[in-house]
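Researcher: Here's the sequence for the chain we discussed earlier.
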Amino acid sequence: MAQLDRLLSHVIAKAGTRLEVKADRKPRLELKNGEAIDLLPTPLPSVMVDVLSGDVVPANLKAAWQRDGAADFEYELSGVAFRIRLSRYMDSPQILAEVKGQAKPVISAAAPVEAHLPPSPPAQPRQALERPGPEASETLRLAPSRPAPAPEAPRVPAPRPRKAHGNPLAERLLSALLEQQGSDLHCTSLEPPLIRINGDMKELEGFGPLDAATLLEMMESLANPAAWQRFQEHHDADFAYAYEAGGCRLRVNFFQDRVGPGLVCRVIPNQIPDPDRLGIPDPVRRLATLSKGLVLVTGPTGSGKSTTLAAIIDLANQKRKDHILTIEDPIEFVHPRKGCLVNQREVGTHTDSFKSGLRAALREDPDVVLVGEMRDLETIAIALETAATGHLVFGTLHTSSAIGTVDRIVDQFPADRQQQIRVMLADSLKCVVSQVLLKKVGGGRLAALETLFITPAIANLIREGKNFQIASAMQTGRSYGQRLMNDALVDLVQARKVEPMEAYLKCPDKESFINACKRAGIPFDLRLGEVES
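Model: Thanks. This is the structure I predict for it:
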């Protein structure tokens, strides 16, 4: 059953005439007496409206829907026929469902008959509606006006409903992942499933090795049609999955390796993370109130960059009265409207790439822009230009230190442009937050943050290409919020939140970390066994 069927069943039960589902609004049902009522207590985000649309659009209209953002077809549920119109204007999806009456008798696929729809706009030709296979009884079929000269090719089966409980194995795996408070689920062909708990991989008990056919069936039940097609064509795909039964979202990756198909699911809570629980210091929180500039959150994969950014964006959403635009791959944390209007665009679904979405953002009147990942030179260049034109831009990079981030950005550009980029960075860059995740004493994980705030002195060092002197300037500028990673790690060890060896393995400068521990009176004897990272 498609997810939209839940809303349509209310239309049938309440004898309604028209259902209207718009992004960031509550679904509205019109009754026969002209009264309109809300079907849900909270608005539906645009991502969910897109999911509802993708579940019901017929297979022969999917390409047009994804390309043109419009589809018009008939749909049947519990013997009631609906006319459904899907549209997407300015990345805001909308669903209109009108009751047409009782569904017509089921028509055999071997002997199609005419079914007439109201006239469509001249620019959009009418298209055949179909739902092949055993689900043919769920919709009316519009036959061509004249017989086809040749037999039709075998039809592709309609995609499975996008629900974990449509597949018992997926439901069991995701339930076990949440029950054991894991962060990631790993499924590989011919291997038992594993989950990551506090950074360590653990085999799930009660599950044997998964064969390729079983995995493919489970993966198809999770994927939306576009992601499944992308996986079939390119052997990898990324998308977000709303796991309603678990009260969370999942960032899902499909891949193919030498053995067969596999998947990784990362848990993304529906609730926006609390800055207090994350331990975000006040100088970093104040970044949400900046009027313009570039703020970068960096660190290795899986270090919690998205979580930190989500907390900062939520602070901006609470305290400002502006327009926030995010470009992500895929959309992870969903931000409801609080003080700000929030538009979230997904790469591959709502825009072709980060650079195209960021280029279009300049014409969408944003005040705050979040770029999920600054992957290439052009994306970095557009982000710098966006920050220089008076916008506040947040972005992420996979670098291991705040100072290394400046070098990484400059080195992305050709030698003849690097001086120009240094000048732009000195003027636009406001802060670099570099973080790593560590195992916490007593269980769990927490982040250590290195923070580089761009003061006039540090901006001058960036402009002159003297990045090697930035560390000294940070040590003397702690009143501005500057903090080196080693200092953050030593503070966590002193607070008995992290074991000294765990901090040592994650520190970038091990020699200075050992000296800092000695100065702080922390007993740390490497003769017990030094392990280089």
